[in-house]
Every structure is written in C-alpha cells, then in structure tokens.
Amino acid sequence: MDDWASYEAFQLVSIDCAGELAMCAGGDVQALYDQRSDGGKSASQFWRDEYRLNSKIGSYPKPFVALMDGIVMGGGIGLGGHASHRIVTERSMLAMPEPTIGLIPDVGGMWLLANAPGRLGEYLGMLGERMAAADAIYAGFADTFVATEKLEALVAALCDPAGDPIGVTAASFAEAPPPTVHADRQDDIDRIFSADSLEDIVEGLLASDLDWKDSALKAIGQRSPLSLKLTLAAVREARTFKSLEDSLKLELR
Predict the structure, then answer these.
(1) Is 98 assigned a catalytic role?
(2) Domain containing 114: what range?
(3) Which position among 20, 27, 38, 214 bears the catalytic label?
(4) Which residue in 58, 70, 74, 75 is the catalytic one?
C-alpha cells in the first residue's frame, strides 16, 4: 500500500475477497487462542499490526474501494468499513459481534458506532446485530448499494484509465437498497439505549412492548456482561474523539 500510494500510475486501490464470505473474519481469534501460552505477546503484536492497517486504509491518499459482497464481521469491518468508497450488495451482512466472545468492538469499530445515528451505536455494539445493505448504509458502515451481478463491470469501469472520476463511476452502478430496519426503530432505540447503564437498558427493554425486545434481551443474555459494559462506555467515550486513530488507541489499550 505504501508503494501504491507513491506510484503516479496507480489511481485507486480496490479490495475484495475470494469465495462467498467476503471480508468475514474470526480466524484471528482462533490464531490468538492457539498462541495463548505466550503471555499475550502474539496478541499484542497482532492487534498493533492490524490497527495500523486499519488506520492506513482510513487515511489512504488515493481512493480506496471496498467491495463488501457477503459476510463482513469483526476484523472484516476494519478492512472495509474505513475505505473511502464502501460498496455493499444484496448479499452483504455486516456486524460487530465481539461481545459474544468476551471482547469489545475494535478495528476502529468504536469510531463507526460512535458516529452512527442517535444511540444506534450502543444498540449495534452491544447486540452485535447483523446489518444488511440498507442498514449498513444507514448506520454509516457503507456508502453505496450495487447489485452483485454488476460488481465485475464496476471494477472494470474503475480500472478504465479513460473512465469518469470514481464517485461518478460508482454512482452510475448504484441502486436503491432494500428498506432499512433500524431507521424505523430509531426513536425506540434512542429512548432505551440512552440509559446510563447496562442494567437500566435491560430494565427499559423489559418494560417495553416492542416487537424486537425479546430478540434484544436474548442477545444481551448471550454476551459477556463485562464486554457489554465496556462497549457501552467505549462507544460513549468515542463520541468525544476527533479521528479514527483516537478510537484505535482506545481499543488497543
């Protein structure tokens, strides 16, 4: 990436993945588990390297296009969520599920969650709820919906030296995504997830008559209480940050 940034002939960078899972992550967790006997040395180095890459993507001096055509979770968000042009499709499924395994949303995820509308950041960060294309765009994790069948033509157009600027090119392939789910829930999410503590949020859900309260309570019950409390505090602290790098520093600490 450093070399590409300095080559004048290289106008943009795009990233996608082989197979059906897009930028699905989780292999890092398995690797860290296998290396758990070294006192955390491998984990510390892994996250430092990973977060440097996330930061580099977020501040890259040339257009950086992420094709998130499939499952994009955890570390996959760090690869796609900070790109300058984030493409999702009808097959996209994005989430930050870290509290399920006793961690917190990282790879700059706190920055994205903190900048989501209203209290959607607390909701998504604590529940780890999956977002289809429209919700990913609504929450600020993606920018543009393009049908999977058009991706090959989109990449060809982006690579055409005589083509239009990237924003124009992407827009020419864009379509309206299916309706969003979370926009309709926004008022209720704001009311319940603005509570001061995890316990207050649970009480608010229990006292509500929302049709999604049972699934929310089930998700909370399956997650590490410590991770939930840390996520709640970190999302709110991240709202005071000025950059992605501030969030990555918090997450590494």
Answers:
(1) yes
(2) 2-252
(3) 27
(4) 75
Quick one: tokens of 39? 């006192």
CATH of the domain at 75: 3.90.226.10
When divided into structural domains, the chain yields a total of 1
User: Is 221 noted as a catalytic residue in this protein?
Assistant: no
Q: pLDDT tens string for the chain (253 positions)?
A: 999 999 988 889 999 987 777 887 677 778 888 888 998 888 889 899 999 999 999 999 999 999 999 999 989 999 999 999 999 999 999 999 999 989 999 999 999 999 999 999 999 999 999 999 999 999 999 999 999 999 999 999 998 888 888 888 888 999 999 899 999 999 999 999 999 999 999 999 999 999 999 999 999 999 999 999 999 999 999 999 999 999 999 999 9
- Please pick, among 50, 106, 129, 251, the residue that the annotation labels catalytic: 106
Catalytic residue check, 75: yes
- Catalytic residue chosen out of the listed positions 50, 98, 135, 188: 98
